[in-house]
């Protein structure tokens, strides 16, 4: 398609797009290639957009929906998230609504009327609903700005998120040939991309493909040394205290165990898996989305479409089964572009379990071959000694020129050792014992253990018996893991974990080729980024940061929306750095648009100014608040003495109640009858973690700070 040489000066619609970016969203510049995509849609063309998570896909259809006349129809597979997306837009003063099965009849009718009356800029619809005769008829009578098909990879039958309803979306082309369409995804390789074009009839769409790199994510993959749980705790405590994160485990039982254990260590952790009743699941998900600093421990059932921008880490306690899955799951960290961690521990058992799951799957041979190939690629990523990011991006055919400097292998280059002789021992032990035993048994033979089983099979007489005493059992496990990962050993198909030799093992056995393996790395002793950063944050900054966060939380609770919808972390951080002193200066901060400035500007400005000249407080700010309380001060007087908002003080107290066993009665002396009625309100209307419905049910008898403390006490009870 031909474009004018410098569209920005000649195209008045593009100037409007810039003005909307600045005024409504509060951002100063488009990111590449948002502007070109917007231009393409404004010109009436179709677009296929492949951009990594957090790249800024939403603006690409939101802004044209606002500029073109009519409504922009957004197809999104997750009804659970539509409300949040619409709430976010409403926060910015943009007219958006959604139609899905959670609405009552009269709400549906009201939205249909708004639609026909031209009162909406954007309408979110689930795919199955979009294609009903009723909706199609409704849209026929409405002026349409565009169709946006979000998560477009759901159309791919090979992918892990296949949604049959998506296939039907090709009908849009026939029903509304003149309406531009934009399909967006973060997870498409070349094959999936071709499939999207083919199935959605996007042959004429201009393609906008942004690389896969997520530079703000730091990748770390470690061998399991038998204490992954403690390592996880150390990681959270040292790198991400009080921050939001996701911990993935393979089984439900493990999810429950890890969540309980983290709670016992004062981490605000909640479980999420398909075995929990749906109310609990919903409650935990909502708390994760709405509050600051919840760690969700989950099976992979959690996360598809989780739009929370400030997830600071994703930890895997098991190996994902492909690089695609790893990339997608880790991609939920750091959508806001701020530094985030992708942290993983994996071990020999993961490799065996996944190989066995594959072997016993019902899929046809072609499918199995692909899956095997994908797992091999994932294992290779784990075992490489070069830059992880380069390997990851290579896999997606998006090569990176130089090592990244922000992954574990770049930061602490792993050492290798010549493992040829050890490998020969390990492999020939497999051979001598008949290629049908599992790792533990093989190691017992190598170490010359005396037990009944070995004697029964007369393996104390084979030549490899007792020849491996130079290594400990754990070291042999590491060697076997790498031999399997490198394809020198294969796992049996019957599911007993028996190992057998492969073609690749022969040259090593015969001494024709050398084998280098990674050295086991001890848990890192180097200075962590957080520890380094913490030294540079002055206590006074800590206070402002906390005060800004609790002001944000209080406002979010009043509105019944997640905290990040008020302002993102990045915006609060910029406020902290710039210390604006006037409303105009505050308006300069990225993420502060007109509507938010009007709604919240004064309060945030107050908060910043009141913290300008405080003496440096030493020590733990929560403890200081609790000490003052114990001296008999009221919340108001603590707030005054410490120059904090009462909301911050309540926040401190709630934390102390939930995690440090401060009795609720010391904060709020409630009669047991009152407590009962509040508890009842939480149990009936407050299950999703929001305070607003509880506040309303109790007719404002308790303010938000008090409710937060009561909620903390109730949460503390159940854990
Ligand atoms: P995606 O859907 O691609 O994962 P989003 O559309 O949710 O990403 O955007 C990710 C984050 O980046 C959001 O917080 C969004 O507000 C922010 N963002 C998008 N475009 C810009 C921009 N031009 N300048 C600053 N921030 C932006
Ligand atoms: Zn690197």
Q: Which descriptors apply to this entry?
A:
719 residues, alpha/beta, Rossmann fold, Arc Repressor Mutant, subunit A, six-stranded parallel sheet, 50% helix, binds adenosine-5'-diphosphate
Specify the CATH homologous superfamily of the largest domain.
P-loop containing nucleotide triphosphate hydrolases
Tell how many strands the DSSP assignment holds.
Answer: 17
Summed over residues and divided by their number, the pLDDT gives a mean of 87
Main sheet: strands, sense, barrel: 7 strands, parallel
Provide the CATH topology of the largest domain. Answer: Rossmann fold
Q: Class of the largest domain, according to the CATH hierarchy? A: Alpha Beta
At CATH level 2, the architecture of the largest domain is 3-Layer(aba) Sandwich
Largest sheet: spatial strand order = 3-4-2-5-6-1-7
Domains, number: 4
- The DSSP helix count reads 36
Oligomerization state: single chain
Q: Between the first and last Cα atoms, what is the distance in angstroms? A: 60 Å
Identify the overall geometry: globular
| Spatial extent as radius of gyration | 28 Å
Helical/strand content category: alpha/beta
* Beta strand %: 5-15%
Give the proportion of residues in helices. Answer: 40-55%
Associated small molecules: adenosine-5'-diphosphate, zinc ion
- Pick out the low-confidence regions: 1-5, 531-536, 614-619
């Amino acid at each position: 398609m031909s474009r004018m040489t410098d569209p920005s000066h000649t195209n008045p619609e593009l100037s409007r797009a810039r003005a909307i970016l600045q005024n409504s969203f509060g951002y100063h510049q488009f990111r590449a290639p948002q502007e070109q995509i917007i231009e393409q849609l404004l010109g009436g063309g179709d677009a296929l957009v492949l951009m990594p998570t957090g790249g800024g896909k939403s603006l690409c259809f939101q802004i044209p929906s606002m500029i073109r006349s009519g409504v922009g129809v957004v197809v999104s597979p997750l009804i659970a998230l539509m409300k949040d997306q619409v709430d976010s837009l409403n926060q910015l003063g943009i007219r958006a609504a959604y139609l899905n099965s959670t609405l009552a009849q009269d709400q549906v009718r009201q939205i249909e009327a708004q639609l026909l009356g031209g009162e909406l800029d954007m309408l979110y619809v689930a795919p199955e609903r979009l294609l009903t005769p009723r909706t199609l008829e409704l849209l026929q009578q409405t002026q349409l700005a565009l169709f946006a098909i979000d998560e477009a990879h759901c159309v791919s039958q090979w992918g892990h998120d296949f949604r049959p309803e998506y296939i039907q979306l090709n009908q849009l082309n026939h029903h509304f040939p003149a309406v531009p369409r934009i399909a967006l995804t973060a997870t498409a390789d070349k094959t999936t991309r071709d499939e999207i074009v083919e199935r959605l009839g996007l042959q004429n769409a201009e393609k906008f493909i942004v690389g896969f790199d997520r530079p703000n994510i730091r990748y770390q993959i470690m061998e399991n040394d038998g204490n992954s749980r403690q390592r996880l705790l150390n990681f959270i405590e040292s790198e991400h205290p009080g921050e939001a994160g996701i911990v993935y485990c393979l089984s439900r039982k493990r999810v429950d165990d890890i969540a309980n254990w983290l709670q016992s260590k004062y981490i605000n952790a909640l479980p999420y898996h398909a075995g929990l009743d749906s109310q609990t699941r919903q409650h935990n998900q909502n708390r994760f989305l709405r509050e600051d600093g919840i760690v969700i421990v989950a099976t992979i059932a959690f996360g598809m479409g989780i739009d929370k921008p400030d997830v600071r880490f994703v930890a895997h306690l098991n190996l994902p089964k492909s690089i695609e899955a790893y990339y997608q799951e880790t991609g939920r960290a750091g959508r806001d572009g701020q530094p985030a961690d992708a942290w993983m521990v994996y071990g020999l058992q993961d490799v065996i379990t996944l190989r066995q799951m594959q072997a016993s799957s019902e899929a046809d041979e072609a499918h199995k071959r692909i899956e095997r190939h994908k797992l091999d690629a994932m294992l290779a990523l784990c075992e490489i000694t070069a830059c992880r990011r380069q390997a990851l991006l290579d896999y997606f055919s998006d090569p990176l020129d130089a090592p990244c400097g922000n992954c574990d292998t770049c930061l602490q280059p792993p050492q290798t050792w010549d493992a040829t002789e050890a490998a020969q021992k390990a492999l020939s032990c497999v051979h001598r014992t008949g290629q049908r035993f599992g790792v533990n048994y093989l190691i017992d033979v190598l170490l010359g253990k005396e037990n009944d089983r070995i004697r029964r099979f007369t393996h104390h007489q084979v030549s490899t018996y007792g020849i491996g005493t130079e290594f400990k059992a754990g070291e042999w496990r590491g060697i076997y893991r790498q031999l399997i990962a490198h394809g020198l050993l294969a796992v049996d198909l019957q599911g007993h974990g028996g190992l057998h030799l492969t073609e690749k093992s022969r040259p090593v056995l015969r001494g024709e080729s050398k084998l280098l393996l990674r050295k086991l790395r001890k848990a890192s002793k180097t200075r962590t980024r957080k520890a380094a950063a913490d030294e540079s944050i002055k206590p006074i900054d800590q206070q402002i940061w906390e005060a800004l966060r609790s002001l944000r939380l209080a406002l979010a609770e009043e509105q019944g929306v997640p905290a990040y919808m008020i302002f993102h972390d990045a915006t609060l951080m910029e406020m902290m750095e710039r210390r604006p002193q006037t409303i105009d200066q505050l308006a300069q901060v990225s993420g502060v648009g007109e509507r938010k400035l009007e709604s919240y500007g004064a309060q945030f400005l107050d908060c910043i100014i009141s913290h300008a000249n405080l003496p440096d407080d030493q020590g733990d700010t929560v403890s200081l608040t609790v000490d003052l309380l114990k001296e008999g001060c009221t919340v108001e007087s603590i707030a005054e003495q410490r120059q904090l908002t009462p909301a911050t003080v309540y926040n401190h107290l709630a934390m102390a109640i939930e995690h440090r066993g401060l009795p609720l009665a010391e904060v709020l002396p409630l009669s047991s009858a009152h407590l009962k009625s509040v508890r009842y309100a939480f149990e009936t209307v407050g299950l999703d973690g929001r305070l607003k419905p509880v506040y309303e049910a109790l007719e404002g008898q308790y303010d938000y700070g008090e409710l937060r403390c009561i909620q903390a006490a109730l949460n503390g009870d159940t854990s």
